[in-house]
Each structure stands twice: as C-alpha cells, then as structure tokens.
Amino acid sequence: MRSDFQAVIDALGTQVIGKTQQLKLAVTCLLANGHLLIEDLPGMGKTTLSHALASVFGLDFSRIQFTSDLLPSDMLGVNIFDSHQKQFQFRPGPVFNQLVLADEINRASPKTQSALLEAMEEQQVSIDGTTHQLPSPFFVIGTQNPGYQSGTYPLPESQLDRFLMRISLGYPGWEAERAMLKSGSERVKTSLDTHIPTNVLLEHQSAVNDVHCSDSVISYILRLVVHSREDAGYPNPLSPRASKAILQAARAWAFLHDRDYVVPEDVQAVFTAVTEHRLRAQQDSHFEDDVLSQRLLDSVDPLAA
Amino acid sequence: MTAPRLPIAGHRASLILAMLFFIVSLSLYSPLQIWVLILSGCAALVRVALYLGWYNHAPSSRTVNLLALLCGVTLAWFSLDLGLLLSMINLLVMACSLKLMLMTRKKDFLQMFASSLFLIGCGFIFSQSMSATAFYLAMQVGLLVALASLFSPGMPLLRQLRKLGVMSLQALPIAIVLFLILPQLPPLWKMPTAKSATTGLSDTVTPGDIASLSQSDELAFNATFESALPAAQDRYWRAITMEHFDGKSWSVSDTRREIRAQYKLFGQEFTPQTTGPFYDYQVIAEATGKSWLYGIDVAVAHTQASRDYIWQSSDYQLIASQPLMSKRAYRLRSFPRTPLNQTLLNMDTRLNLQLPGSGNPATREWAAELRKQYPDDRAFIRQVMNFFVEQEFRYTLNPDPMPLNPVDTFLFDRQAGFCTHYASAMAYVLRLAGIPARLVTGYHGGEELKDNVLSVRQYDAHAWIEAMLGEQGWVRFDPTSIVSPARVSFGLQQALEESGESLSESPFSGLYSLPMMDSLRLFMANADYLWSRWVLGFDAASRENLLERILGEITLWRLTVFFLSVVAGIALILALYFLPRWQANDTTTHRKLVNRAEKVLVRHTGMARNARSLREYEKALAPHMPNEATVALHQIISGFETLEYAPGRRAHSVSDEMKTALKTLRRSLSGKDGAAASKARRG
Predict the structure, then answer these.
(1) Domain harbouring A26, CATH code
(2) Measured by CB atoms within 10 angstroms of the end CB, which terminus of chain A is less buried, N or C?
(3) H/E element holding A117?
(4) What is the pTM of this model?
C-alpha cells in the first residue's frame, strides 16, 4: 500500500471505525474516477464517510438530501432573471461541487434521479440550451436504503450501472462500536486534515490510467464477463461498461497498492463491489445469502489461459 | 478443507438423482428385498421433502448411522439365503439409500452418481432385453442430466438436454468401436444358481407336465441357420435325456449324473465321431436357470467360444458350463446322419433297462405276450407303434388325470394324451421287452421368423424316445407322430385343430387372431431376435468374423497394426479435441513451473487451488506447510506475477529463481528427512 494512501485510510478510519476494506474500496473508486453507491440501513455512517472523504482530499462538498418532491432544478441549478443586468443568470445548484453526496437517492422521483445520473455520466449539465461544465474531479456518492424500505423508488438497472462501485458498510464490530462510543464526545466531525490535495489527486487519477494491464488479466476479465453472459444463473449479465469498470477499478486498486501492473488478485478484490449491483436483479437485492459475484469468481480460474 | 456444501431446498440435481436412483432400484425389484426397496423409497422421499423445503436439513448422521446398523444386521441375517451376488446388490442399494439421505456435499453427490451408474450395470445382470437396454440408457442420460445440473445449476433443463445429447452422440462412435473391437472379458462372478424361478423344461417329466408349457408362448430360443432350414419333421431339438423311470415320472438317472461328474472332474468330455452331411447354426437361448442346451441330433460345438461353454455328455446331451441366467448364444454343427452309437454301450444298456419294481400289471403282461410273438427288436417296436394306430389313440392337451398305474390306464383305458404320455408308455413297454429305451425331452419344430431363422417357443416342447438297436445305437422313435402326424409335420396348432380341441385356452386365440396384432407380434419377435443376435450374441467368434471381413486373413501383425491404428485413431480424435487446451495451458515456462508447483502442493496438502488466485491459495496453504516451503512458494508466485503481469520484464533470471524455488519446495515437502538432509549438506 502506498504510504500516502495508507495515511488517508488511517485518517478515514478514525471517522468510520473498523471498516478498512470499505474505505479502501471507496478511495479506489475515487481514484478510478468513478461514482460510489453506498447501500445501507440508516445510521451506519454513510454520510460520515462522505464528509471524511471530502475533507481528506480537500474537495468542495455538498449534500443533496433526496426526497420525493425534489425537482431536477433544485439540484442542478436554475436561470434567474437578473433585473439589474436585464438578463438571465445561471445559479448553479448543489451539484456543482467536486464531491456530491446524494443522500437517499432512491427516495427521489425517477425524473430527479435520472437528471443526476445524466450529470454523473456526462460531467456536464445542460440547462435551457446552455451547457455548464461540472468541476473536476467530480465524484458522486449516492446512498440508498435497501429496496425493501418503504417510500423508495428503486434505481433501475441502467442507472445502477452508472455507479462504478456499490459498497455496504454494515454493522460495526463489537470492538469498533465500543471504541466509537467511548470516543463519542471527543470526535469532532469533518475535522480531518487534507492529506492529499486536489491537484495531486488529479495526477493520481491520470496515473491510474497508466497502470499496466497484461493480456492475461484482460482475458481473465473477459472470461468473467462472458461466463456471466453464458450461464443462465445470472439474471443480469455484465455489460461492456461493467468490464471497463472492472478494469479501471482493478487498476486503481493496483495503484493503491503501489504496483504498476494489475494482477488477478486486484480484479478479485474489487470484483464484488463493482459487479454485484449490476449482476443482481432488483427485486431480490435484499436477498444476500448467495453472492452472485462470488459465485462467478469461484467458477472462473484466474490462471486458465 | 471441507468440500463445498450443496444447497438443500430446491436443489434440482439432488432431486433428479434421487428420483433416478429410486426408479433404478424399482427396476431391480426381483433381486432386491422388499425392505431394501422401501428404504430406497424413504430416501427418495427424504430428498423430495428437502427439495420442497418441508425440512431444511438432512437427517442427522446419528439417525442414519442407527438405521444403517439395523439394516446391516437385517441384511446379514438374510444374506445366507441370498447368496453373495444378491447380498451385494442389496447392500449396494441399501448403502446408496442411506447415503442419499445424508447427501449434503458435492463429494457425496459424485459418489451417489457413480454408485447409481454401477447399479445400472447391475441391472443388466438380470435383464438384457432391448426394452431393458432402452430403459437403462434413459436412466443413464437422466443421471448425466443430474450431474450437469450439479455443475451448471442455472442452465435451463432443455439446454442441458441438448448439450448432453450432442456430447453423447460424440461419444457414441467411440463406444461402438470399442464394443466391436475390444476383447470381452469373462464375467467376474458367477450367477447364483437355482435361486430364481426357472422356466421351460424341467429335470423330471411326469406325463402331463408339458401340457402346462404348451399354454405358454414364451420364446425358448432362436436358431439362425447358415444354410437352409432342416425339414419340418426333422427339427428334433434334443435337450434332456431321461433314463430313470419310477412308474410315474421320468428323470435324469443318478448314475448318469455321477458319470458326468467324474468326467468333469478329470476334465474329459465326450467327443462324438461325426460323419455325413452337416449344417451350422447359432442358437440364442433364453434364460432358463438350468444348464441344458438345445441341439438337433448329434450336435457339436462349432467355435472355440462355444466349445468352452458347452460340455457334451456321453448321452449326446449338451450341458452349459453355467446355468443360463441370461440370454446366451452358442454355435453348433449338427450331423443328422451320424448314428448315436459311440457311447458306453454296456453302461447305457444297464441304465436304460431299469424298471420300477411294481405297478402297471396289465402293461407288463401285454408286453411279455407281445415279446413272445415278436422276438425281433425292430418287429416288436413296429408292433407297439401299430398298437397306437390300431387302437385309435387320440391326441389331446387335456387328458384325464391318471394317478394309479398311469401306463395301464393310458394304454388300455383312456387312450388319449399327448407326447409325454405316448413317449413314456412306449419307453416303458420297450424296457419291459428288454430293449434299452429312454425318454428325450426337448422341442420340436419352430416358427420361421424369417429366412434361415427359427423361433422356438415353449409350446413347441415335445418328448420322444430313443431305443438302442444293437450296432445302430440310439434310434429315435416318436409315437406321437404316429398318433398325430400333424403335430410333427405342422406343429401343435394344426394337431389340436385336427383333434377338434377347443383353442380357447391356447395362446393363439384372442389378440393374435387380429391380423394387425399378429404382424405386430412378429415385428416384436423379429426386433428382439435381431437384438439378441447382433448385440447380445456378439461374441468372440463374431468379432473374429468381423475382423476377418475387415482385414482379410488374420495374422498377428495385421491384428496388431489394426488394434494400434484404432486406438491411435481414437487418441487422435480426443487429442484434436483437447490439444488446444493443453497447448494454451503450457505455453510459457513460468506457467509450467506454477502448474508443477500446484501439483506438488495438491499432493502434499490435498488442497486444490480450484478457481482461487495464487495469493489466496498461498494464504490458505501457509498453515499446512513448513516455513521453508512457504518462502519458496512465495518466491514462485512473485516470480510468476512479475513474468505474467508486469510490463516489459521478461528476465530469464526470474524463471531461474522460480526453478530453484520449485526445487526447494519439492524438497521441503517431500518429508522431514529430506529437509534435514539438505540442512546437513549445507552445513
């Protein structure tokens, strides 16, 4: 692990205790220039994690709380008529920030959801015929409650696909929660120092693209996605966007571990986070007994040529 | 490491396997004990309950162990009666049933799969008919479906079936070639004798017995002649000679049995000197549970395989080396003109003059009187035959019972009966007159299934006599032919029609009177015959013929070349299929090295890598290996990663390091001594 990122993870670990793996995945997601979906029950530290990430990388942060009556313009911004200058002026919405926390994204109406997802994909927003560039880096953390909770509009598969990774924090361990409770009052929110400034993060993001990926790793990824398409046990086979996502995430993971080439272990490490939400059919997303991505990993030999 | 667990509720593969196992067990109902069948039904029920989710865990192993103990004791109790083979089959089904209840892991499933295949093999011991073969083939395909759904649970059933169909078709040519070419091994075990019901002729004939046979249209045997069929009246299929008469029943003489036993003990066999014209034919005999075989007149085994199988007794009877528990083909050559006169004449004479001490006074008196008039043997016999004609004896399948002095009653009172009555009475009269005579049972006639093929059924059962006339030896006389010439010339049906007997209880009535049913019957008989002849009857001789047709003259070196080329051909086909994978697997040195290391590790730790990555595998192995090996393995894996995944670095030094590490790995895993020795060397 690179020492600078080790420091980042350690710092994040003071806020979200005992979830090193998820923190690493979140940082990887940021490095891979992808958006992150956190799915969990309320109160598990989703928001805390986003705040911490923003401060560690010194990113502008905004939070949009999604509700069923949130309109796209509430999020993207509006053109307001300036009576002094006698013209319309664009008032950017909260989405014009480097790190946007879209909280409880599945409580908003589909119209609003798709407006955000379009912004995520294009990194730009078009309002009244004018295109406004979003800042760079642009990182969206969507959080959602599990689909079976009431008052939710589940994200359709096509939109889930836009998120590079989906992670779930889960309940903390006994020790972690005890430490959290003890340190309770001392903990000051968002008081983390900036460990990696934004311009360095941008450099790192472009360095990730230079991580070497050998033919055998690429063929491993291909075998994984092809297997998901050929075996009828996978209701939603992996798309080419998914295979691109796997590769990008694996590169970021390798970079995070201070390697300039990808090994199959990198693919395996990010695989569940990258593919599980794409593989699984929406209806049974709460049915977690059988992890499809793990089954897929188990049925493809990383070494086979 | 624990084998992967199978899912329980809704696991299709387990359910299919359980059902098929139960169906195969049901098909073995005759050798199985009823409680074993019930047990297998219970096991299938357990699987159904698990599949439907009524229960969510298999029965505890404690319960099943207790059940196993009980079953084991019960089986041991019955095993003395059952004999080895049947006990073993019962044991197999019992064990499989218990295993089925406990089947929770993939390993168990594979064991069950293999055992079920074996069970199907066992099924063929008891039935090899075409329908049984089709049934078991279907079962086998079903088992493959179960296996396929174990490994790809998500695949829809239809696609699985299609895939399996394609694979089976690919395997079919290889199977056929192997069936045709590979020498057949002799059976590993002998069938239990006389434990199951026997059919056909019996060792003892009481006049009246064959009547029940004549109601049966079951096939006795098919005979395929290489030349034209013998004339209808010459088709006397000898089966058993009976030389002991107790006043009511004829049976095989004990002395004859002893003589046979002695002959066999010294490995000797009666070989008749044959003369005159002959014809060759193949007989496919149905299972009887007995060991006598059928042949026309003086018949000798024709091929080596048949010679090994058939033992000829000095009364010209053919005896199989094992009871016919299943269909069996053998080849004979018959010499219709050869006299039956090369036997131990003295012994034969003595045996065949044996008479019961008392009974049938009228016959005794009549025979003595007649003998005085006709001292010449031939004249006497002619006179006895005349007697049957003059007295207007009647041929009937429903004679009145004759419990007391049966020969007296038959000859002078009722004067109606069928072959055994006539033969028995006549042989008795001849013996009374001092002419050695014996009863021969067998079959007469047969239906022409197609050109050169005779199909002989149980209702063709017949009995006649042989009398010894000096140098001529044993001469056949058939009193039935005098009384009812139609019986001999045209068969039973004709004979019965002429005697005006109702056919209501005969096998020809009812369904077969419809022309369509009759042709269907013929078609089925034909198909069954072809199956028996070409598949079951495919023996060493047929193989030799086939090879001769392919190779011309068979020489050792041609044979060797042929076998090798066939094997090479099969190997080539398989290689063409598998080679791309092998090639791809072994392209680079570092891949080879890792594969070798994996083999070493699997041998040592028993843990296969499966689809895990190398790092994960290393982590799993570490606690089970000495430190030195762990370090070496790490070196190998790092080297592999560098060469396989890193850009631009293809240094030979790395693969050399890997080689060294592999050596170290081997040495440290090959045992503590090796490690110690290596340390000592270094020191």
Answers:
(1) 3.40.50.300
(2) N
(3) helix A110-122
(4) 0.47
